[in-house]
Amino acid sequence: MLKYTIRRIIGMIPMLLLISIVVFLLAKAMPGDSLSGEIDPNNTNPEYIAEMREKLGYNDPLPVQYFDWVKGFVQGDFGKSTRYKMPVSDLIMERIPNTVFLGVSSLLITYILAFSMGIFAGRKPYTIGDHVIGGLNYLGLAIPSFIAGVFAIYIFSFNLGWTPYAGSVEVGLQEGTLDYWLSRIHHVIMPAIVLGALATASYTQFLRNDIIENSRKDFVRTARAKGTATSKIYNVHILRNSIIPLITFLGFDIATIISGAIITETIFTYPGIGQLFLNSVTTNDYPTMMAITMLLSLLTLVGNLIADILYGVVDPRIRLD
User: Fold this and answer.
1) pTM reported for the whole predicted model
2) CATH architecture of 96-278
3) Which of 47, 152, 182, 314 is the most buried (most CB within 10 A)?
C-alpha cells in the first residue's frame, strides 16, 4: 500500500505539469487579458500602457511567462487578483471556509439520503416505495441545479421567508458565538439541500442495484442456509460489498466540494470559491481563475488517490501493490 501510494504521488507530478500547460494556454487563448485590471483606468496614454505591459511581463515569450507563473505557483505565490487588488492566495483563503462548509453540509445530506433510500429500495425492490424512490431519483437527475435553486429561492425565501437568499452570515454578529454559527447554518441550509439532494439520485441507484445483485449471490444463500439473521445478512455481508462502488464517488467528492458549488453559490449569492471562479472568468481576472483551476485539478488527483486507497480498506480482497 505504501509503495503504491508513493508511486501514485510521483505520477501526479507530470500530470499536474500537463494540466498547468493546458490551463496556461487556455487562459492566454481567451479574448483580452487582465491588463485593464492592473493599470490606472484614468490613464489612457499609449506610452503608459506599453510601459505597464512590459513591466508586468505581458510582452515576454509564452515559455517565459509560463515558467514565471509555475515558479510562483510552486512557491505559493498565485499572483495578484486584478479585480480585488489583493494576493490570490489571501482571496482564496478568505472564501474557501464558506465553500468547505457548504460542500461538507451538502455531502452529509447526499449520503444520509442516498444510504436511507438506497438501502430501503435494495431490500424491498419492485415495491411501491422502490418505485417512488426511483421516480424521485429520475426527477433529481432531470432538474438542473440552477432551476432548482431559483425555485427554492422563490418558494422558501420570497414566499415563505424561511431562509435567506444571499450571503453566508448575518451582518453584525461576532465570529465564534452561538448566534454566529446558527446564522451560518441558516444561510447554508438551502444551497446545501439543493446541492446535496440533486446529487443523491446516482448514489441511491448504484447502492440499490448493488444490494439487489449481491443479495442473489452464493455467499448470501449460504448465510441464509446457516440461519443468519436477515438484518445481519444485509447490514454486514451485503452492504459491505455494495458500498464499494460508492467509494469511487467519494474520491471525486473532494473536488466536488469546490467545483460542484459554482452554479449554486452564484444563484444564492453565497461568497465562496465557486462564485469567485465564475466572477474571475467574467472579469478577465486570470490569476484568480488559473489558481482555482489548478486547485480543482489537484483536488481531483488527490481524490482519485484516496478512492483507490479506500478500495483496499473496504474490500480486503483488493490489494494495491
Assistant:
1) 0.78
2) Orthogonal Bundle (1.10)
3) 152
